[in-house]
Amino acid sequence: MDSITRHAHYTIFLYLIYHLKIRLKNKNNLGF
């Protein structure tokens, strides 16, 4: 059970990093 929870948190963490990278890329493309 602990390993499943840890894996879920890790997946959410990766998703957040990926989302932030896309936002930063979009800001750079817009000139912000």
Summarize the structure.
By secondary structure, the chain is mostly helical. The chain is built from one helix and no strands.
Write the layout of secondary structure elements.
Elements: H1 2-30
Written account of the structure:
The longest helix has 29 residues, at 2-30. The protein is rod-shaped, with a radius of gyration of 14 Å. With 32 residues, the chain is mostly helical. 91% of the residues lie in helices and 0% in strands. The protein has one helix and no strands.
Helix content percent band: over 70%
Report the biggest beta sheet as strand number plus sense, adding barrel if it closes: none
SSE order: H
Rg (C-alpha, Å): 14 Å
Mean of the pLDDT scores?
A: 86
The shape, in one word, is: rod-shaped
Task: Find the structural class using helix and strand composition.
Answer: mainly alpha
Distance between the first and last residues' Cα: 44 Å
DSSP strand count: 0
Unreliable runs, pLDDT <50, ≥5 residues?
A: none
Count of DSSP helices? 1
Give the percentage of residues in beta strands. under 5%
Keywords:
32 residues; mainly alpha; 1 helix; 91% helix
